[in-house]
Design goal:
The protein is an alpha+beta fold and 581 residues long. Helices cover 34% and strands 21% of the residues. Helix 10 packs parallel to helix 11.
Length: 581
């Protein structure tokens, strides 16, 4: 393989293919490599392979062709060696890299990259003054996005301004995970998405700061590298991707670094970002450096606070409560995904509050005023079309996804192909992760890719030991809806003295036995102690008693004085000084 790596390009050029057996260069559109540079002739030069050697011939161009500084005689072929530079008209030049073990003698055009060490596979940054070949559609999207961000009504409302930024950027960069990150006190704070963890990789940040401009870095995902074939894409592997494409651009206000725009693509395809992506992100970051001083940061941070309070209020109304960190993280993930329209895959242990979590997702979205429809696997196969029409504009929750047969899977795939995910929100509930649905239940991989775009794992009972009393009360109220207080307060403390039940199903059976053992309400501590002693061993350590009713998200101002770990959103709010504890 003869690889031509660009050294200089004073104007943009277009390549008609990826590989060639011969390569014509010139200003005319009939050429394999065409440019708009007026100093390049219409038919400037030709490269071709003969007897395993790459030759270049000048086609009597006006400004000539040079190899390693020596001008060629027109129509006399000149051989090229590894490392030599061929220059056309003094405006466009390439360096030759030869792969002697290549099976076929072909020619390719490559962009300049730097090879990194360790997990860094490739670094892509644009030289100063170089503009890539622009795509009219994406250039228009950038123009429309900047016009939208300059609207005064948006600038006065930071939350809406952020939403406009991210939705517009998703169209620019093919919907990667885009983040707006602010640099504060030597720490990176994610402003959007709310409460998210930074996706900015250390290697990418280092390259970005070293150059002071946008850069794309391809990394090797070491944790996934052993489990997949490096030549496969996500279509052929449900285990993950060995390649991680990262993109980062600094945002500056004058000479001062304000923060970063960061994007990550883990779709399993190498070279996820190209030169145009780097250029577009750099232009967007420069524009943000000008616009951010005009945006109301008070409103922007206020949107964090409003989302958190609304999430806590809705969760309490649905009796989805507890002080465990695992539950707080799960509820926050639901809150962050609620404004989006894409399907959500709830990976839930059997007997857990999966219906309540799906209802919370619906209540926090813009579809809250419409219908929430619940379907089982049998109903999907029998009446999916009617349910789609009935739930349009709302949320359709499908339980026991693993029970879908081939007919139900086909109906579901057809509904997604027909665009129903734009008309309503799909929520899929199952205790099995996507790879097990493919291996055990023979779900087709294309369908799983559509269903599992956003996977949220509900914590199991062993991760919610601090919530045992709260969960027991919720289960008792399900069994006896008219009972206002199923257990005495001193009885609830007994849950901390015994080992955690193995599952939600086991805890439900235990609560049912306790209610049946005592006709009086609330159930006394003596009756509950008898049931617990018969079913569970004593705990080797004493858990802290949970204050009821506990608050999801574990915000310190709303847990009645109990010290709990802070959730990501609560930490961001405390750093911003929006709450005083």
């Amino acid at each position: 393989m003869f690889k031509l790596v660009r050294v200089k390009a004073c104007t943009a050029y277009h390549v008609s293919n990826k590989i060639f057996d011969s390569l014509c260069i010139g200003r005319g559109k009939q050429n394999d490599l065409s440019t708009t540079d007026r100093l390049i002739s219409s038919s400037h030069a030709r490269l071709f392979v003969r007897d395993g050697v790459l030759l270049v011939v000048d086609l009597d161009s006006r400004n000539g062709t040079e190899v390693s500084g020596q001008r060629l005689t027109p129509f006399e072929p000149q051989s090229l060696m590894h490392g030599q530079v061929v220059e056309f008209g003094g405006r466009l030049s390439f360096r030759l890299e030869v792969s002697p073990d290549a099976e076929y003698p072909l020619i390719s055009i490559d962009e300049p990259t730097e090879q990194g060490s360790g997990s860094v596979l490739r670094i892509l940054a644009l030289p100063d003054g170089v503009t890539p070949v622009l795509d009219a559609g994406r250039l228009l999207a950038l123009h429309q996005l900047l016009l939208r961000l300059m609207e005064p009504s948006l600038m006065r409302h930071g939350g809406r301004w952020l939403e406009a930024l991210v939705s517009g950027a998703s169209r620019l960069f093919k919907r990667p995970e885009l983040q707006l990150i602010r640099r504060e006190n030597e720490q990176n704070v994610v402003l959007f998405p709310l409460g998210g963890e930074s996706n900015l990789r250390a290697e990418t940040l280092e390259e970005c700061l070293k150059r002071g401009k946008a850069v794309a870095v391809e990394l090797l995902n070491v944790s996934e590298f052993q489990s997949v074939d490096v030549h496969q894409t996500f279509d052929a592997s449900m285990h993950g991707s060995p390649f991680v494409g990262t993109l980062c651009a600094p945002i500056r206000m004058g000479q001062q670094l304000w923060g970063y725009l960061s994007a990550v693509s883990e779709n399993g395809v190498r070279y996820s970002f190209d030169e145009l992506d780097v250029w577009l992100l750099d232009q967007l970051a420069q524009a943000l450096g000008t616009l951010l001083p005009l945006v109301s940061m008070t409103q922007l941070l206020g949107s964090h606070r409003d989302l958190y309070r609304r999430t806590a209020r809705e969760a309490r109304a649905l009796t989805l409560s507890g002080s465990s960190t695992a539950l707080g993280f799960c509820i926050e993930q639901l809150a962050l995904l609620a404004p989006q329209q894409e399907p959500v895959y709830l990976l839930a242990p059997a007997g857990s509050e999966v219906r309540t979590c799906a209802t919370l997702l619906h209540a926090l979205s813009h579809r809250a005023g419409n219908l929430f429809e619940l379907l089982g696997a049998a109903q999907v196969e029998a009446e999916l079309e009617q349910s789609l029409q009935y739930a349009i504009g709302g949320t359709l929750c499908i339980e026991s996804l693993e029970a879908l047969g081939e007919q139900g899977q086909a109906r579901l795939m057809q509904a997604l192909d027909d665009g129903w995910e734009r008309q309503l929100r799909f929520v899929f509930c199952t205790p099995y992760p996507p790879d097990q649905l493919a291996e055990i239940f023979s779900f087709p991989v294309p369908l799983l890719r559509r269903l599992a775009k956003h996977v949220i794992r509900l914590p199991d009972l062993l991760e919610r030991t601090a919530d045992l009393a709260t969960i027991a009360v919720s289960l008792a109220l399900e069994l006896e809806p008219r009972c206002k207080q199923p257990f005495a307060e001193d009885a609830l403390a007994l849950f901390n003295e015994f080992e955690t039940p193995s599952s939600f199903v086991a805890l439900r059976e235990l609560v049912g036995d306790a209610l049946a053992a005592d006709e009086a309400r609330p159930v006394s501590s003596k009756s509950l102690l008898t049931v617990l002693s018969a079913r569970l061993p004593r705990s080797s350590f004493q858990r802290e008693q949970t204050v009821l009713p506990a608050t999801p998200g574990v915000h310190p101002c709303e847990t009645q004085g109990q010290q709990c770990p802070l959730s990501p959103i609560a930490q961001a709010l405390l750093r911003a000084g929006l709450f005083e504890c």
